[in-house]
Write a structure and sequence with these properties.
The chain has 204 residues and is an alpha+beta fold. It folds into two domains: 2-37; 57-195, Chloramphenicol Acetyltransferase (2-Layer Sandwich). The protein has helices spanning 2-5, 11-15, 20-37, 57-68, 89-102, 142-158, and strands at 78-84, 108-113, 116-121, 134-136, 170-183, 189-195. The strands form two sheets. Strands 1, 4, 5 and 6 form a four-stranded mixed sheet that branches. Strands 2-3 form a two-stranded antiparallel sheet. α6 links the parallel β4 and β5 (170-183). The longest helix has 18 residues, at 20-37. The chain is extended, with a radius of gyration of 22 Å.
């Protein structure tokens, strides 16, 4: 919004203006207010990575809740994907490793300095080895296969994370048949899933 119109609007303001006319009016009001106050927010700048980095507000909340109730699975973000057709498991693992290499948030853990939490960002490696366990359920009867798949996905989604050691992203691949696959948070046919703090995972 700031790049396109030169002003910043809150998310609430966007929802309160469902029409273009109302939104244009809100933008004009914001422009007039900024002109009157002359308070332009400073530009975003990259922070050097050579010292301790404080936690963002959302990270502080996550860290605090983890101290109150370690391993609470209600803080996890889980996703399951259904993959149909032949699957090269090694290539999938390499692709996940590349996603981790590209995004600092997936290489970030939380340490403590003088009693206060800080971000610890691992530097990107030329190639990131991503552990992708595979559970082959193709040989099970259909009813048992479905139940076992649900059990595996639940186990992956509810297993605790160690915020200090990481990794904070994990995946497991379930081979459902010789033609399909499913991946839970966590191939012929597979199910693939992942658990972790990544909103951009599907895009990547």
């Amino acid at each position: 919004m700031r790049d396109a119109c030169g002003v910043s609007l809150s998310l609430r303001a966007l929802f309160e203006t469902p029409t273009l006319e109302a939104l244009a009016g809100r933008i004009e009001e914001a422009r007039q207010q900024e002109t009157q106050t002359s308070q332009t927010p400073p530009p975003l700048r990259r922070v050097p990575r050579d010292g301790d980095l404080p936690l963002s507000f959302s990270q502080q909340r996550l860290w605090f809740l983890e101290q109150m109730e370690p391993g609470n699975p209600n803080l996890h973000i889980a996703m399951a994907l259904h993959l149909a057709g032949p699957l090269h498991t090694a290539a999938l693992g390499a692709a996940l490793g590349e996603v981790v290499r590209r995004h600092e948030t997936l290489r970030t853990t939380f340490g403590a300095r003088g009693g206060r939490p800080v971000q610890v960002i691992e530097p990107p490696a030329p190639a990131v080895a991503f552990r992708l366990p595979v559970a082959d359920l193709a040989g099970l009867p259909a009813e048992r296969r479905r139940g076992e798949a649900l059990r595996e996905m639940a186990a992956a989604a509810w297993s605790p994370f160690d915020l200090a050691r990481g990794p904070l992203l994990r995946a497991v691949l379930l081979r459902m048949s010789n033609r399909r696959a499913r991946a839970p948070p966590g191939a012929p046919s597979h199910r693939f899933g992942r658990v972790g703090p990544t909103r951009f995972f599907s895009r990547s």
